[in-house]
Task: inverse folding
């Protein structure tokens, strides 16, 4: 009597094994792409929510593993749990990609706006200087005054007038040169300000891109499912 019982048990075990081998887990498809972010705040909130949801998915998978090891069809249960985890992680990855892309584009737009503002300010200053150039006074005439025929005029007085005329002409020329130099200095300073604004914006963008890449790499590493042993 024992031998038929053992044969039946063996047959049942063979059937169960065959059913387990023939059973396949249907691969679920991820949901449709997530809706586009409408603001920087919303995109940042989505990234925060993705990180929290990934932790929840990992916890749920670990709990499901424990349950699977108590079932008869362990492998089937584990395959189904892994598939659910995969689909859930794919959904979160899609949200992360969309939100990260929105933030990168927002930074580019911010940089372009800053450059546009600097360029507009420069053009406005250039137009103002062109419309109202600094006054340049013509040097006063250094022509010698007509000699007076008064006998009382001395040679010293004539020399003094000549020196005064020369000094006035020199001062006028110096003021004209100073006005031109001041105009050129303001123009050069405006150009340097524009370059400095563009440089600072480029540095902020580069830092943000590196930080986003590091965060994405960390999240991708964290999203890898742990290896399991059947």
Result:
């Amino acid at each position: 009597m024992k031998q038929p019982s053992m044969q039946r048990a063996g047959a049942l075990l063979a059937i169960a094994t065959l059913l387990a081998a023939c059973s396949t887990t249907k691969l679920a498809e991820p949901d449709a792409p997530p809706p586009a972010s409408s603001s920087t705040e919303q995109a940042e909130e989505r990234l925060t929510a993705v990180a929290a949801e990934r932790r929840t998915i990992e916890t749920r998978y670990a709990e499901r593993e424990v349950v699977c090891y108590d079932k008869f069809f362990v492998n089937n249960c584990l395959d189904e749990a892994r598939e659910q985890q995969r689909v859930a992680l794919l959904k979160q990855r899609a949200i992360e990609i969309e939100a990260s892309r929105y933030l990168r584009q927002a930074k580019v737009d911010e940089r372009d706006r800053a450059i546009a503002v600097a360029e507009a300010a420069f053009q406005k200053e250039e137009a103002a200087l062109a419309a109202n150039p600094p006054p340049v006074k013509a040097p006063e005439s250094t022509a010698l005054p007509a000699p007076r025929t008064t006998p009382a005029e001395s040679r010293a007085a004539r020399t003094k007038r000549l020196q005064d005329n020369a000094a006035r002409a020199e001062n006028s020329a110096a003021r004209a040169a100073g006005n031109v130099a001041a105009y050129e200095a303001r123009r050069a300073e405006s150009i340097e300000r524009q370059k400095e604004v563009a440089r600072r914006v480029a540095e902020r963008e580069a830092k943000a891109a590196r930080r986003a890449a590091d965060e994405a790499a960390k999240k991708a590493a964290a999203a890898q499912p742990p290896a399991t042993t059947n």
In short: Residues 149 and 158 are 12 Å apart (CA to CA). The chain has a mean pLDDT of 77.
